[in-house]
Amino acid sequence: MPWSLQNAARQTGRIAVVTGANAGLGFETALALAGKGCAVVLACRSLASAEAARARILAQYPSSSVECLPLDLCDLKSVHAFAQQYLLRHPTLDLLINNAGIMMPPFSLTKDGFESQLAANYLGHFALTGLLLPVLNKTPGSRVVSLSSLAHKWTGIRFDDLNFQKGYSKRLAYGQSKLACLMFAYELQRRLQKAGHATRSVAAHPGVSATSLFRHMPGVVGLLNPLTALIFQSAAGGALPTLCAALGDDVVGGDYCGPQSLWEMRGDPVKVGSSRRSRNLDNATRLWDLSERLTGVPYLDS
Fold first, then answer.
1. CATH entry 3.30.110.70 includes domain 15-295
2. Terminal Cα distance for the chain, rounded
């Protein structure tokens, strides 16, 4: 039986961080969590956009606790600053929802020297999770939810050219970043379990949802952008696999949630499978070690 948000338990007394919570999937995730009584921290690049999202949530749930903190995942200094501010304000963290992302922009490198999609979708979240992991591990029942995509099947990890500086394909760079997110979710669970921590690392993908991510899509899909709301599921529907991964009673570490329908494009959230590449243990270790070096954020017993 598919998971239902309506039947999910109340989250009173719990707190969640949702990255990219000002719009799209992130906003719908934050809105649903607030509706369940969870305190929510909106972690967004634009503080003004975060405050506007906060006002929208409070208009629907006036008694909810919603806080805004700036976070630019393409800037490791900002990631460190966010983690420091969070830890100063809150002694616990029940849910870390690594939702924020960009999709198929023109080529650019961040100030840290990373390809922008790799930075925003994966490396920034890798660093953020590592910095917040001590408080997650101190919080009973905590979970880390990493957002992947059907695009994780498009390519492997380009260990010899991680930043696509030898020839940029925005499609393959996006696929690589989302594969990295999924490999990270699986590897984090393995390491948490080995270290004896109860925090669960899980992953989700939204299927194909009508969100602003499509603004950079080339060709015919770009031309269809105004019609995506008619063709694909809504942002609220796309957020359900994330919410299932975060709140589902039967979700265990290492699970991956997505839509139930044919090709996993839309529908009720269920547990789904993933590509063979995403489960390659040697590459997962290699990516993990490289990510620690690139971000300068060590994990667990590293």
1. no
2. 40
